[in-house]
Design a protein that fits this description.
It contains three helices and seven strands. A hairpin with a 4-residue loop joins strand 1 and strand 2. The chain is of the alpha+beta class. It starts with 11 loop residues before the first helix and ends in a 19-residue tail after the last strand. Strands 1, 2, 3, 4, 5, 6 and 7 form a seven-stranded mixed sheet that branches.
Length: 163
């Protein structure tokens, strides 16, 4: 039986750059776009070896005063780490981040796809298909909204700027 292909590990410098700049900038932009309230972030990534990984984090954002609270810090760290690898790109083929915001009468969903090392708004039809509850599973229907374009903050030291 052939050996399962091994993933090539990205260089330490690429991981550090993704963690220190890209990921923190992306999460900051997502938090600003979502605004005050209770939110759930779900990240699904397909690795280059065809494995799927998921991350989820529940958080509360406030602007007056400024606050960010995570329901489970370990879950948030897992999601952030998965986003590092998705943005770095050498071991992840594709990734999608869906944010659900608690709202009445139903939650709102926004989605971004990772392309070229950044989060880009998903097509709302693709997002709608992604958030449809599975038949027979207890789930809340979410209202799909276009995700805002997230601002990028270029860094002079970055080897691969996000265009």
């Amino acid at each position: 039986m052939p050996e399962r292909p091994r993933l090539a590990a990205p260089a330490d410098a690429a991981i550090a750059a993704a963690m220190s700049r890209s990921t923190l900038n992306a999460l900051s932009a997502v938090f600003q776009a979502l605004g005050d309230g209770e939110h759930t972030l779900n990240l699904v990534a397909e690795r280059t070896d065809d494995a799927f990984l998921t991350g989820r984090a529940d958080l509360s954002i406030g602007t007056a005063p400024v606050r960010l609270a995570m329901l489970d810090e370990d879950e948030f760290c897992d999601l952030r780490t998965l986003l590092v690898f998705a943005l770095e790109g050498s071991t992840v083929r594709s990734a999608v981040l869906v944010a659900t915001t608690a709202a009445e009468p139903s939650p709102r969903a926004y989605g971004w796809a990772v392309r070229d090392g950044w989060l880009h708004p998903m097509d709302t039809a693709d997002l709608q298909a992604a958030v449809i509850p599975c038949p027979g599973a207890p789930a809340v229907t979410r209202d799909v909204h276009p995700a805002p374009v997230l601002p990028q903050f270029p860094d002079a030291d970055e080897e691969r700027p996000h265009a």
